[in-house]
């Protein structure tokens, strides 16, 4: 049972609990209208200390489609945080008003700290710094299942900013629960996956892994190529960002190297790492992936509130 639990890190749920969640998500995808009054009288609080479009909108759309209501802020300057209020006081106050909350924060570990001050309200991590983004991972896994039927025995390519990309870290960590996973990690030396992902996730679970600085030689064997942007907001040095931001650009020519069923994913927003011309390719699934995010968040809200 997931009722009342927090989702801060992919390890917070068991594999059986995730299976329960994804089974419900598949039902939501097939018949979303069946759930449109499920959360009447319930309130979701969205606490976004960092800018967000897809994640915040998808959570809000999910709750509204379930018949619930929304309160919250989309930037700290519009809340009492601007007056110096602590996370502890903010979250304890929000629990007085809402049934469930979502938090995005620039500092790694902030949502985990917030859970220490909660008595009953479930809290969902919508991204903490360059650390984790578990609901994007739920989105990614649901998309994989809808496209390929199963997660196991697949080749997953990740390209771009693998150092600061919290979506990449969460996805790899989640994939470590499955058999037959192969990874191709494509990035410049400066943006390789952090050591803790390499040692505590990839090596510890004996996952087959190739690290490379070119995508073309490996694209044909991939089931999925997960593109990411180089994140300007994570760099301390503007010169480094400018030097690395255009290192990997997926365009129509590069798509010729991909297999017929190599699907392209992206957590969005994109800058220029995927050319617009790729959008017309049926293998480009990133906008459908964004829609799937709303469905899986609908399922997550229903499970954490104990409605299904």
* Separation of the first and last Cα atoms: 10 Å
Mean pLDDT, to the nearest integer, reads 91
**Low-pLDDT runs:** 232-236
- What coarse outline follows from CA principal-axis ratios? globular
CATH topology-level fold name of the largest domain: Rossmann fold
Most strands sheet: 5 strands, parallel
Oligomer: single chain
What is the second-level CATH architecture of the largest domain?
Answer: 3-Layer(aba) Sandwich
How much is the radius of gyration in Å?
19 Å
Topology as H/E string?
HEHEHEHEHEHEHEEHHEH
| Structural domain count | 2
Instruction: Indicate the CATH class of the largest domain.
Output: Alpha Beta
Q: What percentage of amino acids are in beta strands?
A: 5-15%
Q: Going by CATH, what is the homologous superfamily of the largest domain?
A: Aspartate/ornithine carbamoyltransferase
Structural class: alpha/beta
Number of E strands: 9
Number of helices: 10
Question: In words, what does this structure look like?
Answer:
It is a single chain. The chain is α/β, with parallel strands linked by helices and 308 residues long. It folds into two domains: 10-133 and 291-304, Rossmann fold; 135-290, Rossmann fold (3-Layer(aba) Sandwich). The chain is 35% helix and 15% strand. It contains ten helices and nine strands. A five-stranded parallel β-sheet has the order 7-6-5-8-9, covered by helices on one side. Strands 2-1-3-4 form a four-stranded parallel β-sheet. Strand 6 (182-186), helix 7 (195-203) and strand 7 form a beta-alpha-beta unit. Helix 1 (15-30) crosses helix 10, helix 2 (54-65) packs across helix 10 (286-304) and helix 5 packs across helix 10 (286-304). The longest helix is centred in the last third of the chain and has 19 residues, at 286-304. The chain is globular and about 55 Å long. The relative contact order is 0.16.
């Amino acid at each position: 049972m997931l009722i009342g639990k927090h989702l801060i890190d992919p390890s917070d749920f068991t594999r059986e609990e995730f299976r329960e969640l994804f089974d419900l998500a598949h039902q939501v995808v097939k018949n979303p209208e069946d759930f449109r009054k499920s959360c009447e009288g319930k309130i979701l609080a969205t606490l976004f200390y960092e800018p967000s479009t897809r994640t915040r909108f998808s959570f809000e759309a999910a709750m509204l489609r379930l018949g619930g209501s929304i309160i919250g802020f989309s930037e700290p300057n519009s809340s009492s945080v601007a007056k110096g209020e602590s996370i502890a006081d903010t979250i304890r106050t929000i629990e007085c008003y809402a049934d469930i909350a979502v938090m995005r924060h620039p500092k790694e570990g902030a949502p985990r700290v917030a859970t220490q001050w909660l008595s009953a309200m479930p809290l969902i991590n919508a991204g903490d710094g360059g650390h984790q983004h578990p609901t994007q991972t739920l989105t990614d896994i649901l998309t994989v299942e809808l496209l390929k039927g199963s997660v196991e025995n697949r080749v997953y390519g990740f390209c771009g900013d693998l150092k600061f990309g919290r979506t990449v870290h969460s996805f790899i960590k989640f994939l470590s629960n499955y058999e037959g996973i192969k990874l191709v990690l494509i990035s410049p030396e400066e943006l390789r996956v952090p050591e803790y992902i390499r040692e505590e996730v990839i090596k510890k679970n004996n996952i087959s892994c190739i690290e490379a600085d070119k995508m073309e030689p490996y694209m044909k064997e991939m089931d999925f190529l997960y593109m990411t942007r180089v994140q300007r907001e994570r760099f301390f040095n503007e010169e480094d960002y400018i030097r690395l931001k255009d290192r990997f650009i997926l365009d129509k020519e590069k798509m010729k190297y991909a297999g017929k069923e190599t699907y392209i994913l992206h957590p969005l927003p994109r800058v220029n790492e995927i050319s617009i011309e790729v959008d017309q390719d049926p293998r480009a699934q990133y906008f459908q992936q964004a829609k799937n995010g709303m469905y899986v968040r609908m399922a997550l809200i229903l499970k954490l509130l104990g409605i299904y």
